[in-house]
Amino acid sequence: MRSPLPSLNALRAFEAAGRLGSFKQAAAELHVTQGAISQQVRLLEAWLGATLFERHNRRVVLTPAARVYLADVGPLFDQLSQATARYGLSEAVSRTLTVNSLATFTLRWLVPRLEKFRARHPDVEVRIETSNEPVERLKDAYDIVIRGGPDTFYGYVMRPFLSEARLPVCSPALLRRVPLRTPEDMRRHTLLHTSSLPRVWPDWLAQANVPSLVPAAVLTFDHFYLTLQAAVDGMGIAMGPTALVADDLAAGRLVAPFAAPRLPSRSYCTYVADEKAGDDLIVLFRSWLEQEGAAFASGPEA
């Protein structure tokens, strides 16, 4: 005989609440009430004979044992989805997901990680287009829109998944030619600007206590990804968002000469039309983005 198992609904509630760190967000993802999530978690705790969450005023925290349990339980839902797809039990559901995202974010963060999603879900075709169009203009054309936030748009469900800050970055070769020991040393360097972000450098220089600094030269680009590429190529120093330069820092293509100050930046968020928010494929992709965002936040590059 097979060993007894807890309720699948209880496990789903635990997995979502544990992954998101919130009963409220878990309820939104699973399209049930917050009370239902709480009830299912209590049922699972009773079945296991153990406490899974420490309850605080507005948040819940997994116990150490529950974190280990979540690490084992979480991947099982992905395996169930893959097994269902392999046996053709989801043929009636569209397996194509359309995403509209910001160009630099897509190039430097999403695309390098997308293969992990495809490896987990080979049956899902993800179609990505990039633009800076306002969210409201894209409602009917895409399943998911990725933009900065958090912002509120009527008729949309917004969920943040990735936070970052900004700090100066440049190529190692540039530092070897012209060392940077203090922010004052930037007087000998070229500062790389993006025309759509005119306040980034002045704000950082003010926080670094050199608000009147005049660099050796200034070079301005119309697209942010060109600014970052210029930094990789050793043309000057750019203000790099930590999420978008993490892979370059890890590979040694860029270095961050100063660990502080770090300018706060807007988060990356998914925006989904209300009527699409319950679609299984959209829920799957949003959850994956949130897992990747959490992994980045807890990683060494954060």
TrEMBL record:
Gene Ontology molecular functions: DNA-binding transcription factor activity; sequence-specific DNA binding
BP terms from Gene Ontology: DNA-templated transcription
InterPro entries: LysR-type_TF_proteobact-type, LysR_HTH_N, LysR_subst-bd, WH-like_DNA-bd_sf, WH_DNA-bd_sf
SUPFAM superfamilies, A to Z: Periplasmic binding protein-like II, Winged helix' DNA-binding domain
UniProt keywords, alphabetically: DNA-binding, Transcription, Transcription regulation
Annotated CDD domains: PBP2_GcdR_TrpI_HvrB_AmpR_like
Highest taxon of the lineage: Bacteria
Signal peptide: none
Pfam families in the record: HTH_1 (PF00126), LysR_substrate (PF03466)
Gene3D superfamilies found in the cross-reference section: Periplasmic binding protein-like II (3.40.190.10), Winged helix-like DNA-binding domain superfamily/Winged helix DNA-binding domain (1.10.10.10)
UniProt domain HTH lysR-type: residue ranges: 6-63
UniProt similarity note: Belongs to the LysR transcriptional regulatory family.
Protein name as it appears in the record: Transcriptional regulator
Lineage: Bacteria, Pseudomonadati, Pseudomonadota, Betaproteobacteria, Burkholderiales
